[in-house]
Design brief:
Layout lengths: L1 E3 L2 H12 L4 E6 L5 H13 L2 E6 L9 H6 L4 H11 L3 E3 L3 H4 L18 H4 L3 H16 L3 E5 L3 H14 L4 E5 L19 H20 L5 H13 L4 E10 L15 E9 L2 E8 L1
Bound molecules: adenosine monophosphate.
């Protein structure tokens, strides 16, 4: 497995590699788990050469202590990538990615204003800045992103469309622990008690899905609020049922629209997100 830390040698290497076949790309922030590895497996299935990046992107953290505490497990990451058959890892420093402070700003309309965007101001602009840079460096044929970050996937699809970037974006299903908790690098920071409660998040949104569409949107939202907030150590930040394409909050059930229910919950100090198609 090739490892690069610098952009120019990486670009030179990939220029040559590109002549030999298609390139699949999986951007990550490291602290890898089976959710990330499933993206590597998809990239390997569809492309001849699989590139993974590991970069904890400072511009997408609106809370600097969250950035500082982001888990770093580089040895284990490289081992997992090697066993998954990843061909190349790009792990730049912050200085390499941001030699100058970034001022780039994007207009995603409603897409980055609701849910995560409302509670984490500037987050999606930071994601867009780094994903654009990474896509321009790696120039993959296909880039793979998890549906775990449903809104991020919608923003990235819009980014690629707006800038007319020559890459196909593929969304991959959420990988869960056996008790239903969506895998996340942040799960490692949960205490034993928080981890037990965190499993309820998926259980509760599954129960909410089963109430639809016979119950009203209002009743389902109240049900989720009550269930989450009455679970020890959990506190609901938001629960939204939205149009899965525009992310506009649904006012009433509409059989013609694909709906997605998205949730953010604090388990103790740790912020977790999940979603389910309804
Ligand atoms: P991150 O390292 O958290 O930035 O995630 C890197 C990529 O892995 C993103 O496209 C995420 O959506 C995806 N991902 C993270 N967790 C999961 C999961 N449990 N299942 C599927 N994809 C995931």
């Amino acid at each position: 497995m090739h490892i690069f830390e610098k952009i120019i040698p990486l670009k030179t290497f990939l220029q040559d590699q590109r002549k030999r076949g298609s390139i699949g790309f999986v951007p990550t922030m490291g602290a890898l788990h089976l959710g990330h590895i499933s993206l590597i497996a998809s990239a390997k299935q569809s492309c001849d050469f699989c590139v993974c990046s590991i970069f904890v992107n400072p511009t997408q953290f609106n809370d600097s202590s969250d950035f500082d505490k982001y888990p770093k497990t580089i040895e284990s990451d490289l081992k997992q990538l090697e066993s998954a058959g990843c061909n190349l890892v790009f792990m730049p420093t912050v200085e390499e990615m941001y030699p100058h402070p970034t001022t780039e700003s994007f207009d995603f309309g409603l897409l980055d204003k609701v849910m995560e965007g409302a509670f984490r101001p500037g987050h999606f602009n930071g994601v867009a800045v780094v994903v654009k840079k990474l896509l321009e460096i790696v120039e993959p044929d296909i880039a793979f992103f998890g549906e775990k970050d449903f809104q991020q996937l919608a923003v990235i699809r819009r980014l690629v469309e707006m800038l007319d970037l020559p890459v196909q974006i593929v969304g991959c299903p959420i990988i869960r622990e056996s008790d239903g908790l969506a895998m996340s690098s942040r799960n490692a920071r949960l205490t034993k008690e928080e981890r037990i409660s965190a499993a309820k998040i998926n259980e509760i949104i599954l129960a909410a899905k089963n109430l639809a569409p016979s119950e009203s949107l209002y009743n389902i939202k109240e049900f989720v609020k009550e269930k989450i907030n009455s679970t020890p150590l959990l506190r609901l930040e938001y629960f939204e049922i939205s149009d899965a394409i525009t992310l506009e909050s649904l006012k009433e059930w509409d059989a013609a629209k694909k709906a997605v229910a998205c949730i953010a919950v604090f388990a103790g100090e740790i912020r977790l997100i999940d979603n389910i198609m309804i």
